[in-house]
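seq as requested:
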Amino acid sequence: MDVSEVMEFILLKPAEYVIVASTFNPNETASFILTIYSKMEIFGYENSQEHKHEPHKKYEEVDVEQLQILLNENILKGDLKFGGFSIDACRSMVALMDTSITGRLNSEEFVRLWKKVVTYKDIFYQTDVSQTGKLSLSELRNAIRASGMKVGDDMLNLMALRYGASSGHMTLESFICLILLLECVNKIFQKLSDGNMMYLQKSEWLYISMYT
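struct tokens:
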């Protein structure tokens, strides 16, 4: 787990800016991954002798394929021993966070998803006390609690059956998809219910079910 990972969301006036990555101690060398997302058109350049000031690709919206690449390259950092984030998992993440219903994530939706993924990744590794790269049922219960939610034993078993492997253990990819869905359906219920019950027309139920 990389404890030095940093994400910032800031508002800057139009100007030229220089971003300098550095290590904690002097005279050390290290590799950095720097990703910039902007609502407006920007042009980024690497100021080194090895590059000829060619602008880097910018992301105004992120689609499923781009999300898969970003997650596997930045969250897993090339460690794909468990297969990485699948295209189906990324499609589910986009659907859960796509409040504008475009099939893509705008900058605000993407930043919101990214922060959640980083948080849930940290929770996953903190609760994986067996250090197997998968969560057992008891570890899953602790991870859900650490995420600020609580479920009963019947629901926990159902989640393990739906999202777990044949052994019932849950990978990082499945855990993140599960927590995102659990958070989403809780918000939907809070928004559409009176606190105890929720009434939906058939068309409303189908709409929610098909794109969450």
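The two ends are 29 Å apart (CA to CA).
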